Amino acid sequence: MHTAASSADIGSEILASTAFGPAPGRAAAQLPEPADPRSRWHRAVALGGQGHYAAARADLRVLARTRLDPGLASLIESTTGSLLRQLGWHGAAAANDGRAARLACAATGAARAEALADAYTGLAADALGTGRLTLATRLLGRVEPLLDEAPARARVRWHWVRAETALARGEFALDDATRAAALAEDLPSVRHRVKSALLVAAATAAAGELAAAARLAEKIDSECRDNALLPLRWACAMLRAGVAAEPPAAAAAAHEAADHAARIRSLGGDFRSPHR
């Protein structure tokens, strides 16, 4: 009994460290079978971060059929929305994030703060992706009072969407992007640090510092490669194509982005086209 419990604990630690820790690049085939619903959520998050969208959705569907506490059930909906949003399905993601917000209201304490912060931040990103910037700003305002009680990653995500909203408005976004990056340095999550750095590069480009943005993006590409963060590597390649100083470099980066997108599609990532 002691050995079985220890094995389950080790497996849970592996999944947590892959989802929100220092080992996001652990091979999908090496991820252990989850011992409980929270570990299964961690595996779904880890798989999504690597671009294994079909596998991540499979775990989320299992969880959707499982009786869960409202806080975890809300996080499941938020994660489902996040995977949709990464592929451009902001409108569809809003349905999941709305359900996440409703479920979160039934949670209590820190679990409520975490779930509501994730849900409202997701809804703000959904609104941003559908051009409703005023709504995005209003939803971000709902997140702020929750941040002291929510996990530290929630504040990083809040700054991400604040920066993205500023970029969409054509406003200066570096303050929020660099704040997210600074906060992410104190987290164990490599994925959060890499995404924050990518946002700093994008905000640097928007500020007109294309050469600096290109240097940052090259470093981020290496970090994405080393940690198997395929969706972020795809986004980074698109940024590199936009900030490259010379046409051959831009073309090479665009080709890489197309290759990454093809790989994502082969793993179950259904990108939304502009006409869908």
Name the overall outline.
Answer: globular
Number of helices: 13
Can you summarize the main beta sheet? none
Average pLDDT for all residues: 96
Termini Cα gap: 53 Å
Which spans of ≥5 residues are poorly predicted at pLDDT below 50?
none
Q: How would you characterize this protein structure?
A:
The protein is an all-alpha fold and 276 residues long. It folds into two domains: 40-173, Alpha Horseshoe (Serine Threonine Protein Phosphatase 5, Tetratricopeptide repeat), CATH 1.25.40; 189-276. Helices cover 75% and strands 0% of the residues. The protein is built from 13 helices and no strands. The chain is globular, with a radius of gyration of 18 Å. The termini are far apart. The model has no long low-confidence stretch (mean pLDDT 96).
Compact overview of the structure:
The protein has helices spanning 2-20, 37-50, 53-64, 70-86, 90-104, 109-129, 133-143, 152-169, 174-184, 190-206, 210-226, 230-243, 247-266.
Task: Give the helix/strand layout.
Elements: H1 2-20, H2 37-50, H3 53-64, H4 70-86, H5 90-104, H6 109-129, H7 133-143, H8 152-169, H9 174-184, H10 190-206, H11 210-226, H12 230-243, H13 247-266
Which labels suit this protein?
single chain; 276 residues; mainly alpha; Serine Threonine Protein Phosphatase 5, Tetratricopeptide repeat
